[in-house]
Design a protein that fits this description.
The protein has 422 residues and is of the alpha/beta class. The chain folds into two domains: 271 residues, 3-Layer(aba) Sandwich (Alkaline Phosphatase, subunit A), CATH 3.40.720; 101 residues, Gyrase A, domain 2 (2-Layer Sandwich), CATH 3.30.1360.180. The strands form five sheets. Strands 5-6-1-7-16-2-17 form a seven-stranded mixed beta sheet, with helices on both faces. Strands 10-11-13-12 form a four-stranded antiparallel beta sheet, covered by helices on one side. It has a two-stranded antiparallel sheet with strand order 3-4. β10 and β11 form a beta hairpin. α8 runs parallel beside α10. It is globular, with a radius of gyration of 22 Å. Bound molecules: adenosine monophosphate (AMP) and zinc ion (2 copies). One zinc ion binds next to α9.
């Protein structure tokens, strides 16, 4: 039997026979001593100011006791897949190759989208070395309850426990499974675990960051964090397990009336491939058409709300130039604006929600609204400590340091390690 299937079955058996949160020790037994163990939690699309504006008592309690980072700077573009993968590899997207949620590879003439499971699980897209591969290669068990990249055998290695992404999996089931993993015998217990929640991001897109739906989603996820913390406390593990709670980016409120019709500003027939999104449009021109497309856009695009770049002119601070999947021409919306295709307009304008606020991210990663959050709590982290800003790529080396692993090459700044760790 395939080892992974075997492990999943074994986990299923555990889920059935081990009541969640039941401590392994009977009364009077000693507190178990774990080898360094880290749970990396991603709450997609949480801006740090949500922690002040919306019900989040459990998250705030962890931040008050441990480390609170005022802003976690996402990588560019401030999208889900590039950021999650930069978090676990310590690499900028130009160095790991997952340059957006959807991509085109001109050498392979192939497309990737986070909604194409066969490509999401294909290791050819995923460069660098994610933390679970570093761990497994060095003899530690890793487990992922969802994380971009975890479904692909990168360098031939998957986490010992992983699941194909299913956004309908109840959050409580995810948390219960993590608690059960921590009760496995020493040799099987994961040392690095990931956990992912999408609800706050989904509510943010549909209703904007200032909505009651985002408030509700924050409250719901905070309750899951509270359940995890209570479960860890019951297992007498709260002071032994490190928690790194992040978001991949923030969320900006957008008014859909403030849109720019992008395929009216150049001739798409001159392009080999165009990747449209509401924040960033990437154009691969046909042979010899690059300057023509660029000049069309330069002439046709409005002066306000949008930036036009040749690949060579993208700012250094984006670290977004060196990969063949980064298109020769990039059109980037300013926050407050969205880019649309002509064909999207009727559906968009006629929808009853057209005038209602929505949320977007993917913009310039220095924009205040695009910043993510970071909370760190546990035996390895400093206590009652505040940090102004960290970058997404800085965290891989923090995780390898906690776990005593030799890090693969990465783009993180080593000066960050003592800021977070004791
Ligand atoms: P974004 O479009 O950048 O807001 O992406 C957020 C969405 O990414 C979530 O709502 C999920 O549907 C999707 N997502 C997150 N993780 C995964 C994954 N591991 N595999 C496939 N889709 C994912
Ligand atoms: Zn996201
Ligand atoms: Zn999103």
């Amino acid at each position: 039997m395939d080892l992974t299937v075997f492990k999943q079955l074994r986990l299923l058996a555990l889920l059935i026979f081990l009541p969640a949160c039941t401590p392994q020790q009977s009364a009077g037994s000693t507190t178990p001593t774990l080898a360094p163990t880290l749970i990396l939690i991603s709450i997609d699309g949480v801006h740090p100011d949500y922690l002040e504006r919306y019900p989040s008592q459990h998250l705030n309690a962890l931040a008050d006791a441990g480390v609170r980072v005022a802003a976690l700077k996402p990588v560019f573009p401030s999208k889900t897949f590039p950021n999650h993968y930069s978090l676990v590899t310590g690499l900028h997207p130009e160095n790991h190759g997952v340059i957006d949620n959807s991509m085109y590879d001109p050498k392979w003439d192939a497309r990737f989208s986070m909604r194409m499971p066969e490509e999401v699980g294909n290791p050819r897209w995923w460069g660098g070395e994610p933390i679970w591969v570093t761990a497994e290669k060095q003899g530690q068990v890793a487990a992922t309850y969802f994380f971009p990249g975890s479904e692909a055998p990168i360098q031939g290695v998957r986490p010992s426990f992983w699941f194909p992404y299913d956004g309908d999996t109840p959050n409580r089931q995810r948390v219960e499974t993590v608690l059960n993993w921590l009760q496995l015998p020493d040799t099987e217990r994961p040392r690095i675990i990931t956990l992912y929640f999408s609800d706050v991001d989904s509510a943010g897109h549909a209703h904007g960051p200032n909505s009651r739906q985002v408030r509700q989603a924050m409250q719901d996820i905070d309750e899951e964090i509270g359940y995890l913390v209570a479960g860890l406390a019951e297992l007498e593990l709260l002071d032994q397990v490190d928690l790194l709670i992040t978001s991949d980016h923030g969320m900006a409120e957008v008014n859909q009336a403030q849109h720019i019709v992008i395929d009216q500003a150049f001739d798409p027939e001159l392009a080999r491939y165009v990747r449209y999104s509401r924040e960033l449009v990437s154009i691969f021109p046909k042979e010899g058409q690059k300057e023509i497309i660029y000049q069309q856009l330069k002439t046709q695009l409005p002066d306000e709300g949008v930036r036009l770049y040749r690949k060579s002119e993208l700012p250094d601070r984006f670290h977004f130039r060196e990969h063949r999947r980064i298109a020769p021409i990039q059109v980037l919306a300013e926050v407050d604006w969205i880019l649309v295709r002509r064909s999207w307009l009727p559906g968009m304008i006629n929808a009853p929600t057209y005038r209602e606020p929505r949320g977007s991210h993917g913009y310039d990663n220095e924009e205040p609204s695009m910043q993510g959050m970071l909370i760190a709590h546990g035996p390895s982290f400093r206590q009652q400590h505040a940090i102004e800003e960290l970058s997404m790529v800085d965290l891989y080396q923090v995780m390898t340091t906690i776990l005593g692993l030799e890090a693969a090459p990465h783009d993180g700044d080593p000066a960050v390690i003592p800021l977070l760790l004791k």
